[in-house]
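Table S4 entry, 3-dehydroquinate synthase.
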Amino acid sequence: MKTELQGSTVRPGSLAAQLDSAPSPSSRTIQQQVVVTFRYPVQFTRGLFDPANRTLLDALPLQDRPARLLFVLDDGFVAQHPALQGQIERYVAQHASRLELAGPLLSVPGGEAVKHDPAQVDTVREAINRGGIDRHSYVVVVGGGAVIDMAGYAAATAHRGVRLIRIPTTVLSQNDSAVGVKNSVNRYGKKNWLGTFAPPFAVLNDLDFLVTLPDRDWLGGLSEAVKVALLKDPAFFRELEAGAPALRDRNLDAMDRAVYRCAELHLQHIAGSGDAFEQGSSRPLDFGHWAAHKLEALTHYELRHGEAVAIGIALDSTYSFLAGLLPEADWQRIIRLFQTLGLATFHPRLLDHLDDPAHPAGVLAGLNEFREHLGGVLTIMLLRSVGQPLEVHDMQLDLLRQAILRLQTLSKEETSWPTPTPVH
């Protein structure tokens, strides 16, 4: 038997015969699997830039030349800490055998506005280029969550990623945004539309940096602690209930405990969820965030992220209660905790365009924007009880409207519910 291949005689069993009978190259697959492990410390300290404090030094590996550092500073934080730049320069000079500055300290605007302006990303990238920051050097960003997001995005897209050390200076960034693996900026009127997943090299939390925070930022960051407690740790929720008066009175020890536990729970989720880079449609840690992100945009970011998250959590908790999922006593505990912390659970922009869920200037449009941001089917986290979350894939618009109106009513009256009996 002969097989013809391109006009040649082919013997059965020959290499040519085997090639002739092999599958078409278009049907062949090489299945590649890449397993990558990320490790980074999240350290808690005080007096980070005291020359005797080795936290920054110990976060860096020993090498045969000083580590090159490019500092990016939040100018709002610098205004509150005018000695900071000199402290950093003296710290680096004191440890010249281990550290060197790659250029002048760079200050950028603080607050959410820094994530709206593409020029700020380019400013950081240009400094990385001028300073010769390579993939064994470091961008060290000192500031609130928005500045850390922006500088992190710039660092992650320079040389396909240079090492980033985050030094967060707000409650919200120390207990949530800066300890994770995301970097982002805003585009097209949407929050975090551009971004990367790039774990930091290290996160260094200095408790002393929180002392000068305005009350709005001191309290607003606690909404993320309430969120993660509701999802994962009823005991932590009870601790927040008991400690709420001290937290509102700016007790530093109470804040230290709240920040540490909140960061710990966020880190446990990122490491243990099986979806650290959010490839699926489920994002438990975005509880309350579909409405929060939309409210931030609708208020032109006058409403800060932590404040918007508190309202978003109150809305989804109220919806859970009205849907018959969440017991009334648990719903009352949630609302009462926000009230005790001094965090609003309602904003007038919630009422805009309630009759038109597709209107881009209404909060209900945030549902579809959230689905688009996640990809796949809409996945919203609700509650069955404190510590028992529940995922759903649709929201009843009439019930959402009722929840918004319920929160409006609560905002107009001084609600005084009896203190619940502690559950042990």
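The CA atoms of residues 229 and 349 lie 27 Å apart.
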